[in-house]
């Protein structure tokens, strides 16, 4: 989820590119000190002129010069603090990712990259400066995303409750083709024996046994002679005992055994119509993480990881052995570095890029994330049908977006409040 795109695209789509360069001055001056960095007066002047130019094109009115200056200055202060956070975390945006972002900006403005470049040049701006500004904005957004994600806690009950609400809306249109096996419990029957038989049938069905044949053979239900086939039904048309068990499962799901007053039941979702299908790629990767310290520099970590790669390729040690010896991710190190099957969107952007692009069996070059330096190897990829969790995924995304926006706002307020900010006046200094 690349939240930086929203910020960039909002700015760039609002109107055709209209960036105004500040008038040359004999000597630029520091307008604001922000921690160990500064906001220059030319930064403020450029931003104000850009806003005025875009507002004029769209016929929008702007507040007074004083208010406009105050708003622009505050935004530049917050932007500077976020960029400092990115530097503190060691976030680096390589040229490939930067080129992708600029390509999206151009596309959103219905331009080619060459046309975007020409638009920037026509305003008297350096394309190199434009690229570096976009690089800084992306890095700041990535740092914000990484730090805000750590603050978000979504409880399973929250997801379940919201998915139930979404299900109520979806159930009106979803239809299920249902297969049913009923094992009847008569007076005097041993219920535990029949339950054990039902569990054995479920085991066989999960191992590939034909449902209709099993229904003909064992079912005492009303559709036994139709191979247990109840046909297509919406939940509101089903017997209550069926509807209570169906929670938007995907095609092929075996449900049960579950108990009713007449015995034990097994259902099969033969097919589904009208339900969003979700197919995802899960990746099983393993990695080794080493964190720089005051003693071990970034170059030292890279050399260590390159030596680990050499040992693995030379057959001197296995990836798992070296993960247990060196990796500073204790959870995966105990599992020979394995992270298990996961979708790549769970990882931070730099790690996700490696997981998405590396061929199976290949070890990456050392790369850095907010957690430290890594090497990663892809063990396997598989396609997984997640139709049964489609609404839970949707509910999770909704909750995440809500909480992200809330936590991002709180985080910005916190880093702004804790920052040292001093506005430099011509004759005096005012501390904010």
Characterise this structure.
Residues 1-22 form the signal peptide. This is Chaperone SurA. Keywords: Chaperone, Isomerase, Periplasm, Repeat, Rotamase, Signal. The protein has 432 residues and is an alpha+beta fold. It folds into 4 domains: 3-150, Porin chaperone SurA, peptide-binding domain (Triger factor/SurA peptide-binding fold, Orthogonal Bundle); 163-172 and 387-415, no CATH class; 174-273, Chitinase A, domain 3; 279-385, Chitinase A, domain 3, CATH 3.10.50. It is built from 15 helices and 12 strands. The strands form 3 sheets. Strands 2-1-11-12 form a 4-stranded antiparallel beta sheet. Strands 4-3-6-5 form a 4-stranded antiparallel beta sheet, with helices on one face. A 4-stranded antiparallel beta sheet has the order 8-7-10-9. Helix 2 (41-58) packs across helix 3 and helix 7 (156-170) crosses helix 15. The longest helix has 29 residues, at 390-418. The chain is extended.
